[in-house]
Amino acid sequence: MKDITMIIGANGQLGTEISAALRELTGADTVICTDLAAPTAALTEKGPYLQLDVTNANILAEAVSKYKVTHIYHLAALLSASGEKNPDLAWKVNMEGTLNVLNLARENKQIKQIYFPSSIAVFGPNTPIENTPQFSANDPTTMYGITKYTGELLCAYYNAKFGVDVRSLRYPGIISWKTPPGGGTTDYAVDTYHHAVNNEPYTCFLKKDTFLPMMYMPDAIKATFQLMNAPEDTLSTRLAYNLTAISFSPEEQAASIKKYMPDFQISYEPDFRQAIADSWPNSIDDSLARADWGWKPDFDLDAMSRDMLDNLSKLKHHENNLEAVNS
Ligand code: SER
């Protein structure tokens, strides 16, 4: 039987790039993209696309049977800042969605593998803040973090009890240029680059010396596929793996941007997201991922800044040209 992958939350920051990368590797027809949004020509021309709400278990089960899905990337979730604005909805989407996917994998043996993204948000004030170990106090203070850690525990439970092959990573903040992130605390680190290429000053919602673990999208995709392709017997945990590439503060990132765009200006007006950032690690120890399945990132801060600014500038010129043609 051919492997068919369903991406849930395919229009999000991660979903857009994971689905494109998988389609490149295995063919457009082998990847079924799903999201809450109604289909558009731009979505369906790239390959199969379904409008789907992951909190609806019946619709999800029907789609999985119809398309003979063997692998699911369950990427739909409310992130930390959106979750604090609407904790009830964050619980509903993040928990019901995850349970629906896990129950489906338990019952439907055609499903071979599940991917569940976790986050640095599973850590809290009692976690060591520097080089946070893989196994540590998990006392998240956000609804997002609570749902991600509960999700991790469910993944480990469904693996041990029902043999579901579910794998997970604790992503740091992910930085990318193709699709914007939405509703996260680490989003500032993407906004900075957009402002820089538009020659606009940026007002950061975190203090200048707030360190957080971060990663460039190509590294996030590489780590995800490496984990999903690792032989089962190399995985020593079924909780999510700690994962990191770079740790920096807004001030350090601004200095990196200024190497390429010397006129970039940044100022700081911390809001409610500062407390979220303060409850998360400054840096992460991901030695278990390195030891178990050979994780090693490619991008440091300056390499990422160069690539982000380059790609966003090209995108801006392309959009300007389109506008000029259409006007
Ligand atoms: N990027 C996420 C957020 O800021 C953390 O996983 O909510």
What would your notes on this structure say?
The chain is of the alpha/beta class and 327 residues long. The chain is 45% helix and 15% strand. The protein contains twelve helices and twelve strands. The protein has helices at 13-26, 41-44, 57-66, 80-85, 87-107, 143-162, 188-197, 217-229, 250-260, 273-278, 287-293, 301-326, and strands at residues 5-8, 31-35, 49-51, 71-74, 113-119, 166-171, 173-175, 202-204, 212-216, 241-242, 246-248, 266-268. The chain has a seven-stranded parallel sheet, with helices on both faces. α5 runs parallel beside α6, α7 packs parallel to α9 and α7 packs across α12. The longest helix has 26 residues, at 301-326. It is globular, with a radius of gyration of 20 Å. The N and C termini lie far apart (50 Å). It binds serine. Serine binds at residues 79-80, 119-121, 144, 171, 173, 184-186.
Low-confidence stretches: none
Number of strands: 12
Q: Fill in the CATH topology of the largest domain.
A: Rossmann fold
H/E series: EHEHEHEHHEHEEHEEHEEHEHHH
How many discrete domains? 2
Tally of helical segments: 12
Strand order of the largest sheet: 3-2-1-4-5-6-10
